[in-house]
Design brief:
Elements lengths: L14 E3 L2 E3 L6 E5 L6 E6 L3 H18 L4 H17 L1 H12 L3 H21 L6 E3 L7 E8 L2 E5 L7 H13 L3 E4 L5 H13 L7 E3 L5 H10 L3 E7 L2 H11 L5 E5 L4 E5 L5 H13 L9 E7 L3 H12 L20 H16 L3 E4 L14 E4 L6 H4 L6 E7 L2 H9 L3 E2 L1 E5 L3 H10 L4 E4 L14 E2 L2 E2 L12 E8 L5
Parallel strand pairs: 7-8, 7-10, 8-9, 10-11, 12-13, 12-18, 13-16, 15-16, 18-19
Antiparallel strand pairs: 1-2, 3-4, 5-6, 6-22, 11-21, 14-15, 17-20
Helix pairs in contact: 1-7, 2-4, 2-5, 2-6, 3-4, 3-6, 4-5, 7-8, 9-10
Keywords: Oxidoreductase
GO molecular function, one term: succinate-semialdehyde dehydrogenase (NAD+) activity
GO biological process, one term: gamma-aminobutyric acid catabolic process
Length: 488
């Protein structure tokens, strides 16, 4: 498949190890498909255990010199990389839409969002501060410094194949670490294109290594078991995250886990209804519902339930699903055939228990992996669409009567990543925001992410934060130095 790229060299199909483009040790390859058409884009090197070990060794060696460089030197390289990403935004967006499916406007937005982490941490590299602690003794001083944690391994998902990489790579490199990344097998091309631009930016060999592969278990086992890896950062499902954490415990690695979500939006009867409809729809159907912080449960106060449903359905009926490269498409496909089946199981179970699909409710009859934007009413908390992350364009709308009931419904989940509230009552804003068990709350707003905020969850949605001034801490170790015998 020929992609309309200004710079065809950004479409890479080999792994990137120690500054070189290489095939896997096995010589195997695997196909990457366009989910909107089913067409094969290219075949990519299928890396394995030996390749992973080589990448980790290269990272360990490269980091010795990288951590010696001044923060300003590291910042300069990152800034150059950022500029190249922005310059090549359109090509990166085309690559992303082709392999992931999201519409081109969303892909452009993700490239800019992903680049913002490189820019942010280029600056934060110069702001790694220590402390001098007053001590009980007059003849010594207590000094605290921060040093890079070591070689970082990262496993990234297919739903945001650019930004989920840059918000791990940015702080790792800024802190003085080297990193080895296994991108999702569905979307390795975005990762490889970023590596190509990093190479052009002058990033020294070995600091960034990309391992495209279908051998997730094999590479994961090496990353978690290799003693040279000091930290693992993972974005993906909660069950996989738990398994990785267990494996990391054998060598006591640092971990950052950004796991599953089940985000509620609570819409109270004093909310601006039009803004609530627009915000809920934008969040729910973004990337065809395939985001970890997209609204999974819409909770609407019973006094405005019918009015909300009417306006919400009218908006959703205007959506047009299609190839993300088609300018008339508002929403693209889901990632693969398996996703279609998983979504339909949840919808069918809800319908069998009494839910009503007032919009959609089934896969599209057009070619590709498309599912109709769907709205379910008459839903209850006994249905799996309340309990489980849907990860598709399906919006179940629940009703509640009181503030206390809404909070209880929102918290009735093992997940705690993001949540949203629509209300004009400032007292309620504070009460509900503090009572909801999650790491992030959007008040009268669902576009809550940027490079300056601490992204992350609580409960079984993970640990650690990405982005913001806090995002560098997960890549640094604190060292205490006691300076004694200071009397003349």
């Amino acid at each position: 498949m020929n992609l309309p790229l200004n710079d065809p060299s950004l479409l890479k199909n080999q792994g990137y190890l120690n500054g070189e483009w290489v095939n896997g040790d096995s010589g195997d390859t695997f196909p990457v498909f366009n989910p909107a058409t089913g067409e094969e884009i290219t075949r990519v090197a299928n890396m394995g255990t030996i390749d992973t070990r080589r990448a980790i060794d290269a990272a360990k060696a490269a980091m010795k010199e990288w951590q010696k460089k001044s923060a300003k030197e590291r910042s300069t390289v990152l800034r150059h990389w950022y500029n190249l990403i922005i310059t090549n935004q359109e090509d990166l967006a085309v690559i992303m839409t082709s392999e992931q499916g999201k519409v081109l406007a969303e892909s452009r937005g993700e490239v800019a969002y992903g680049a913002s982490f490189i820019e942010w941490f280029a600056e934060e590299a110069k702001r790694v501060y220590g402390d001098v602690i007053p001590t009980p003794q007059t003849d010594n001083r207590a000094i605290v410094i921060k040093q890079p944690v070591g070689v970082v391994a990262a496993i990234t998902p297919w739903n945001f194949p650019n930004a989920m990489i840059t918000r791990k790579v940015g702080p790792a490199l800024a802190a003085g670490c080297a990193i080895v990344i296994k991108p999702a097998e569905e979307t390795p091309l975005s990762a490889l294109a970023l590596a190509k631009l990093a190479q052009c930016a002058g990033l020294p060999a070995g600091l960034l290594n990309i391992l495209p592969s279908k051998n997730s278990r094999e590479i994961g086992a090496e990353m978690t078991g290799n003693p040279f890896v000091k930290k693992l950062s993972f974005t993906g499902s909660t069950p996989v995250g738990k398994a990785l954490m267990k494996r990391c415990s054998d060598t006591v690695k640092r971990t950052s886990m950004e796991l599953g979500g089940n985000a509620p939006v609570i819409i109270f009867d004093d909310a601006d209804l039009d803004k609530a409809v627009a915000g809920a729809a934008a969040s729910k159907y973004r990337n065809s519902g395939q985001t970890c912080i997209c609204i999974n449960r819409i909770l609407v106060q019973d006094t405005i339930y019918d009015a909300f449903v009417e306006k919400f359905a009218a908006l959703v009926k205007t959506y047009k699903i299609g190839n993300g490269l088609d300018k008339s498409s508002t929403h693209g496909p889901v990632v693969n055939k398996t996703a279609i089946g998983d979504i339909q199981v949840l919808v069918d179970e809800a319908l069998e228990k009494g839910a009503v699909a007032i919009v959609g409710g089934k896969p599209s009859d057009q070619d590709g992996y498309f599912y109709e934007p769907t709205i379910l009413t008459h839903v209850s908390d006994s249905m799996r669409v309340f309990r489980e992350e849907i990860f598709g364009p399906v919006a179940p709308i629940f009703s509640f009567s009181s503030e206390q009931e809404a909070i209880a419904m929102a918290n009735d989940t093992e997940f705690g990543l993001a949540s949203y509230i629509y209300t004009r009552d400032q007292g309620r804003v504070w009460r509900v925001s503090e009572a909801i068990e999650c790491g992030m709350v959007g008040v009268n707003e669902t576009a809550i992410t940027s490079e300056v905020i601490p992204f992350g969850g609580i409960k079984e949605s993970g640990q650690g934060r990405e982005g913001s001034k806090y995002g560098l801490d997960d890549y640094l170790e604190i060292k205490y130095i006691c300076m004694g015998d200071l009397h003349a």
